[in-house]
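Structure ticket #2291
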Amino acid sequence: MSDIESQIKEEVAENKILIYGKGTKQAPQCGFTAETIQFFSKYGYPFELINVLDNMPKREALNKMTNWPTLPKVFIDGKFYGDTDILDEMENKGEVEPLLKTAFGE
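Resolution: structure written out below.
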């Protein structure tokens, strides 16, 4: 396992909700990242956004690890879920809130 993959696994383990995207929470640099920030903000749980815009090796490692070519990439409780298209579908089925409650031990 590469150092980058080890770092990604550590970041995923340290954060119940982790978004790999473009920019920061305060200044997202793509519409999809901004949409994902808004998505999680409404639930009120803490989440982390890691900017991979200028880190091509990390982006490539994430692409390989998730088999998902686009950003953002969302991990909840250590599991990869895709992006907001997937999360919107899950939300419509009522699956997101129970998942978050479980992740945060509620």
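Closing remark: The mean pLDDT is 96.
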